Amino acid sequence: MQRQIFTEEHEAFRETVRTFLTKEVLPHYEQWEKDGIVSREAWLAAGRQGLLGLAVPEEYGGGGNTDFRYSAVLAEEFTRAGTPGLALGLHNDIIGPYLTGLATDEQKRRWLPGFCSGETITAIAMTEPGAGSDLQGVRTTAEDKGDHWLLNGSKTFISNGILADLVVVVARTTPEGGAKGLSLIVVERGAEGFERGRNLDKIGQKSQDTAELFFDDVRVPKENLLGERDGAFIHLMTNLAQERMGIAVAGIAAAEHLLEITTKYVKEREVFGRPLSKLQHIRFEIAEMATECAVTRTFIDRCIVDHSDGTLDAVHASMAKWWATELQKRAADRCLQLHGGYGYMAEYPVARAFTDGRIQTIYGGTTEIMKEIIGRSLLA
Fold first, then answer.
1. What is the pLDDT of residues 148-198, one digit of tens each?
2. Which of 321, 328, 316 is CA-nearest to residue 357?
3. N- to C-terminal Cα distance for the chain?
4. What DSSP state is assigned to residue 275?
5. Cα angle 27-29-33, degrees, rounded to a multiple of 5
6. Are residues 124 and 182 in contact, defined by beta-carbon separation less than 8 angstroms?
7. CB count in 10 Å sphere of residue 121
8. What is the rounded CA–CA span in Å between residue 52 and residue 40?
9. Residue of 24, 243, 256, 285 with catalytic role
């Protein structure tokens, strides 16, 4: 079906993204996968190409465009290229809104120009070893010392954790406040007592640096409080819909791409003297995936438009996230199976898509949490 949500401007931007991937990412990606981290030069190149800070006001060096469809294009093209390691979506769509929506004018002048140029790489540190997705379990503390915060604690599974120059840390500022006693404290590279642990060894997305972070009596200036004191819970909930939409967009794009390359493969691969595509079972598998992708695409595109218009709610974002990512997971498994032994070879795109995509049903809120959100909205 012909998609109807993009204009000529969006498609021109798509060509820009494809050119960037061809010139600045794909030639280096295998090396980044071996290194376990991408080059900082790639971030600077993304900044020069105008791919960072799409929604940041122009006065700070950004694109000044809040149309989420541009972010969707970026997510789709990076997914099709199989290059999730350069986490522009995390930077733009997850952390960006905290800086543009909560930062003071002074903070914006200090942080946003580098955010847009690629000189300042960002991360958000929420997850802790014993807390997972439970904000009430956050133990990292930020103690008010009058002229500064004293930060203590640890975080894990932090994307961009090694490269990050600016880390938005979720910390407890009111001990008895539960999930509502948390604040966002911004820690900058070089702060004394701020240490990075291992670059974690994952089964997929090898080039996306994911780290443990440790804070031992880190003195953070009072002016690095982002948003309201004890306001982190509301701030985090406000931005989750966009985070989940970004994941959903990547999910359906991955499923569609897997279907595309597998359809081509079964037409060319011969078994017992004829192409795999001549077997009824193979045709049924392709037919089922094509139908699931078409139906999902329709819903996700509607959600993209609604989010661009500011009308998408948390429930439908949760629906989009769990459905698209579970489809991606099923498609990756079925497409690998249809590739046979070749699908298990790392040199085949389907193999990397299988391991890279497995995290999709986990981060940004697991499938189970998405269902809980949806169920509560219907049965409250």
1. 999 999 999 999 999 999 999 999 999 988 889 999 999 999 999 999 999
2. 328
3. 37
4. E
5. 150
6. no
7. 25
8. 13
9. 243
